[in-house]
Amino acid sequence: MNEAGSILETEKEIVEEFALFDSWDDKYEYIIDMGKKLDPLDPVFKTDENKVRGCQSSVWLAADFQNGKLYYKADSDALIVKGLISMLIRVLSGRTPVEILEAKLDFIREIGMTTHLAQTRSNGLLSMVKQMKNYALAYKIKDPLASKN
Amino acid sequence: MNAALTIPRTLDITAIRQEFPILNREVKGRPLIYLDNAATTQKPQQVIDALVSYYSNYNANIHRGIHTLAEEATASFEQTRDIVQAFIGAPSREEIIFTKGTTESINLVAYCWGRNNISSGDEIIISNMEHHSNFVPWQLLCQEKNAVLKIIPIDDNGELVMEEYEKMLTTRTKLVSIVHVSNALGTVNPVRKIISLAHAVGAVVVVDGAQSAVHLDIDVQEMDCDFFAFSAHKIYGPTGVGVLYGKKALLEAMPPFQSGGEMIKDVSIEKTSFNDLPYKFEAGTPNIADVIAFRSAIRFVLECGKEKIRRHEEELLDYAHQELEKIPGLKIIGKAKEKVSVVSFIIEGAHPQDIGILLDNRGIAVRTGHHCAQPLMDRFCIPGTARVSLAVYNTKYEIDELVKGLHKVVKILSK
Prior knowledge:
Chain A has helices at residues 7-18, 24-36, 79-92, 97-102, 107-110, 125-142, 144-148; strands at residues 59-66, 69-76. By secondary structure, chain A is mostly helical. Chain A has a two-stranded antiparallel ribbon with strand order 1-2. In chain A, β1 (59-66) and β2 form a beta hairpin. In chain A, α1 runs antiparallel to α3 (79-92), α2 (24-36) crosses α3 and α3 (79-92) runs parallel beside α6 (125-142). In chain B, a hairpin with a 2-residue loop joins β1 and β2. In chain B, the strands form five sheets. A seven-stranded mixed β-sheet of chain B has the order 4-10-9-8-7-5-6, sandwiched between helices. A four-stranded antiparallel β-sheet of chain B has the order 13-14-17-16, with helices on one face. Chain B contains 15 helices and 17 strands. Chain A binds chain B through residues 24-25, 28-29, 32, 56-58, 77-81, 122-123, and chain B through 28, 351-354, 357-358, 361, 368-369, 383-384, 408, 412-413, 415.
């Protein structure tokens, strides 16, 4: 379990936080702030292998599997993308592979960030989610215990 | 010279804007400010009407139909060919081949001319500012034929280093393919000089006119290029239509591109003989509606007057340069003496993607990224730029809004 509560609870928290903002600029400023608070990613993880494809900016995503749970680390050279991925990490990090695979992540739509999910935006939020879920799938297959959770 | 003749009447931009229905829409609650015209231009009502009229009144497959609708559709389709011929000053209508875009036009030359004329050790010259569509086809051809691809370098202003180009030309140079106007920098290249130097060593020259056809006066005979490629959708026309102009003798000697209907003369079990130009290169049912509507786009440009459009865009471009440079940390990439319509820039500490997203919040559409010109971005050691590209309907007010927006963007990103 993530100390902040379930995936849905964390999503709801984020939606409530965004409800405080009226303008798009304020929403994006908040996203950027969240990105700035993301734990720094050790440069050793900034490899081609960890690069998320389909992003206009560079995004690196690494995952750690401990005690049946996945922990994500990431960085990006673009601030908004970094903020977006920090939200995904807040929601998905510290979860079991099954929880991650089942997450619908409706909060993205609810906070008005669906444009970032569109293929056309090449902002890569979709690719990031896919990559995070790929890690979960890989660990689910690798660790028979994980699939029982 | 009579001074009165050189002062053109200015365009009524407010009236012109009214011809573009999309300019009435809002994005994120603000009026759309469309500054991504090098990617594609918006379409005037007469282009939209031409599409609707074709499908509503005379939709039919062309060329072989005996009925009235087929005759009307054929006449209208072929009329566009005549207009395009005049638009670029081609000597004959047979030299105008409809494709689906500039990319296909260039690929057609690479396949049909390239594969028959390039052999091991031959040399092809392109430049460091090519769009990938005028880069990759030649790279692949050279790999396939074991030929040599040479790249004309560019200087810090974004201009071709012509001395280097001259040194590159040898008796092995078979083809030079060069962009007329850079999509990422706006640089206008000295194509006439490039062509005459290439011809002196017997090389064939392809000019990528994707960005130039809308801004510059094109006369392929005066330019003396061997091939000229461009797209309708960057000239206020529909997507899915491109043009390849080629000199008749070259086109006639080339094998067909694709095969099937339309491009044949006779088909028997033993042998197929090919149709005459231009149909030899137009296999299958063409993009009839969009070719027809392309004529309305050209009419729109001619009604405005290219010279007048250019003056308007030049004024806006100068203004944009002047105002953008006042933004702290902003650096313009590409400061060629001869340039049109495009301002590419980076801002210190701001990723172009962030700039693009935050401008979109204010209804401002710009392009960010490498602009399909990665070798060019590598040349400037940058991952990409934000690019503003102008069209006839843009205004000073929109530049002011852009600048205001950028000030806000810088504030947000530098917090």
